[in-house]
Amino acid sequence: VKLYDCKTAPSPRRVRIFAAEKAIDLETIEIDLAKGEQFSESFRNINPDCVVPALELDDGTCINEVSAICQYLERVFPEPPLFGSTAVELATVVMWDTKVEQQGLAAMRDVFRNSTKGLKGHALTGPVSYEQIAELAERGRRGVSVCLQSLNERLNGSEFVAGNFFSVAAVSSIELVDFAAWVKITIPEEATYLKRWYDAVSSRPSATA
Amino acid sequence: VKLYDCKTAPSPRRVRIFAAEKAIDLETIEIDLAKGEQFSESFRNINPDCVVPALELDDGTCINEVSAICQYLERVFPEPPLFGSTAVELATVVMWDTKVEQQGLAAMRDVFRNSTKGLKGHALTGPVSYEQIAELAERGRRGVSVCLQSLNERLNGSEFVAGNFFSVAAVSSIELVDFAAWVKITIPEEATYLKRWYDAVSSRPSATA
Q: Which of B61, B62, B95, B149 to mutate to test the interface with A (most CBs of A within 10 A)?
């Protein structure tokens, strides 16, 4: 199994943290996004969407999308469970993971991709060119803040994002906080529950992955 | 188990189709989105994001997000499997479901919410007001077309979206095609594989759900 990775990018780090929590030793192949290697002919055969992470199985099957890679690894390496154990835990994990992805990380990508000079014409990932929309960067900043506030409320009375256990929803939330710091959005002073949680999860060994 | 539903909205229909494929008889409670019932105090207690679908379990636990509801139903009602059977099938299903959600349905929501007069101030779902961005509606139309084309290529040589079996990825794709028709985006003439697939899946009894 090989992970197509980029050490500096937010999305593949989610898979690296996930794998580290399970003590899975993944062979990684670095794709240099700054040099545009994701658009190369050879990488398009791995992932036609031209994004990392991508997981190539030993038989050549390629799995793209963080959610799909994590579900695959969970099934093949079940311990420790990062999608909960019961049906309700699974649903709670997927619900929070989806919220953080679609409300938080999507907004954060809007900020980054619509406001970074070097990404002109790349307002969405992938091979199709999309122009930047300045209003979308602004809207994204608000979306990230709303999501951080929603996480703070959730963490009032809940040890972790999806309940009393560490899960893939926590991995996505760590990445949201760390990615937001790129554009100087930090955890607000008053978000004490989020701060307490972040201090705990970001000091786990996996956070250095 | 109760499903908070809206008969005319795209997202809850995905859960209804999913449940119909498994012959699960879900009690439904209609939330009138046109009247703004999703913003009522009582519904906010079910889903603070103010969107349907939401699934309320018998112990009062609420599961939001289509992905989470479907994963829950899959675990509790495993037959027939709609997330595949093996780890690779599961990963392939989640990969395509995520692609259709994040590339296709998200773009379609951008079109609809940024161009519908009655949705001014509601360019994103939920309780926070966001102004419409006309450019985003335009960009969304292109995104929907790109996703339909990507599905057409995939369906060249693959009976269903995620392989040789019907899955939740097909459910999301049906909804993408049907939702796109709201804004007069139809399957292009030349997309013959997509057309063949759509004719087959939309004639399944579940498609009337």
A: B95
The angle subtended at Cα A185 by Cα A143 and Cα A97, nearest 5°, is 50
Q: Is the minimum CB–CB distance between B68 and chain A shorter than 8 Å?
A: yes
Q: What is the pLDDT of residue B134?
A: 97
Which residues in chain A touch residue B146, judged by CB atoms under 8 angstroms apart?
Answer: 128
The answer, for B98 touching chain A at a CB cutoff of 8 Å, is: yes
Partners of residue A145 in chain B, C-beta under 8 Å: none
In this structure, are strands B2-5 and B54-56 parallel, antiparallel, or unpaired? antiparallel
Query: Closest approach of chain A CAs to the CA of B38, in angstroms?
Result: 17
Across A77-103, average pLDDT: 98
* Percent of chain A with pLDDT strictly greater than 90: 100
3-state per-residue secondary structure call for A109-134? HHHHHHHCHHHCCECCCCCCCECCCH
| Nearest chain A residue (CA) to B56 | A88
| Cβ-count burial A130-151 (b if 16+ within 10 Å, e if not) | bebbeebbebbbebbbbbbebb
Indicate the pLDDT class of residue B189, thresholds 50, 70 and 90.
Answer: very high
pTM of the full predicted structure? Answer: 0.97
Contact A124 B130 (CB under 8 A): no
**pLDDT for position B192:** 98
Q: Do A87 and B75 touch (CB under 8 A)?
A: yes
CA B135 – CA B144 distance, rounded (Å): 14
DSSP H helical segments within chain B, as ranges?
10-21, 41-46, 66-76, 87-99, 106-115, 134-154, 168-182, 192-201
ipTM of the complex: 0.97
Three-state secondary structure call for residue B4: strand
Residues of B in contact with A150 (CB under 8 A): 48
